[in-house]
């Protein structure tokens, strides 16, 4: 499903990713953990090409792109790969002038060229899935942060991506609101949605991940099942990280 080989990304002279190799199977929930500045978010943004890697390759499904700093990436290939992913950010980025249902319909109508009737039907189905059907005609300012993030998840799912990417989806929320979002994400994981989640929530990684990836200094230091990473690791740096992390 996802196959990343020798991925490098630099900003000027600052090398953020230093040769990442990562494979994620269809239906897996892969959770990326690690200290701040380890390259987690940059890796996620490279997966949907919000950042263009300098070197290496990314394959998602049948779409694969090779990167070479001396060769310009073809825009149509970027679009084709990006269509395979849906992104949920730390901030919710809902359109403030649109209702909840209109937010979910917008991408379907403009990008997927669905009729408004079809887009609305799909949107209502997804709002019911995330537990917000009764909020369909409200505006973002009328929602809590947790509710806004759940709408953002529904909006990403409406585009029917192969993979959902989450960048610290609960970092801006208090624990009670965060639990609402994590509950939805755990449900998606159980249903077999392929997901890549950058988070500091170790409890979510323990409970919902199929694969846990530990990054530091732009490299993958350790990876495995939750049991291998949290209970049986021999990696001293990972042990140190887990001993001081809050959740």
Automatic annotation (TrEMBL):
Residue ranges annotated for the ABC transporter domain, each copy included: 2-242
Keywords from the UniProt entry: ATP-binding, Cell membrane, Hydrolase, Membrane, Nucleotide-binding, Transport
Uppermost EC category: hydrolase
Organism domain of life: Bacteria
Cellular compartment(s): Cell membrane
Bilayer topology: Peripheral membrane protein
Pfam families hit by this protein: ABC_tran (PF00005)
One Gene Ontology molecular-function label: ATP binding
One GO cellular component term noted in the UniProt record for this chain: plasma membrane
CDD domains: ABC_HisP_GlnQ
Protein EC: 3.6.3.-
Protein name: L-cystine import ATP-binding protein TcyC
UniProt source species: Clostridium magnum DSM 2767
């Amino acid at each position: 499903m996802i196959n990343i080989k020798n991925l490098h990304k630099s900003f000027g002279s600052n090398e953020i990713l230093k040769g990442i190799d990562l494979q994620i199977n269809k239906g897996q929930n892969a959770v990326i953990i690690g200290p701040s500045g380890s390259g987690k978010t940059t890796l996620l943004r490279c997966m949907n090409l919000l950042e263009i890697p300098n070197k290496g390759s990314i394959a998602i499904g049948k779409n694969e792109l090779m990167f070479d700093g001396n060769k310009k990436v073809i825009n149509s290939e970027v679009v084709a790969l990006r269509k395979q992913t849906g992104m949920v950010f730390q901030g919710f980025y809902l359109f403030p002038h649109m209702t909840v249902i209109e937010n979910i319909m917008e991408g379907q109508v403009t990008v997927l060229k669905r009729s408004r009737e079809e887009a609305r039907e799909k949107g209502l189905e997804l709002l019911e899935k995330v537990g917000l059907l009764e909020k369909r005609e409200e505006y973002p300012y009328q929602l809590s942060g947790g509710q806004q993030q759940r709408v953002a998840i529904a909006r990403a799912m409406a585009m029917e991506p192969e993979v959902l990417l989450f960048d610290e989806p609960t970092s801006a929320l208090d624990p009670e609101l965060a639990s609402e979002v994590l509950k939805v994400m755990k449900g998606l994981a159980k249903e077999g949605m392929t997901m890549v989640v950058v988070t500091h929530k170790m409890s979510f990684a323990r409970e919902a991940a199929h694969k846990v990836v530990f990054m530091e200094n732009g490299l993958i230091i350790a990876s495995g099942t939750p049991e291998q990473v949290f209970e049986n690791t021999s990696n001293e740096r990972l042990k140190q990280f887990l001993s001081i992390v809050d959740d």
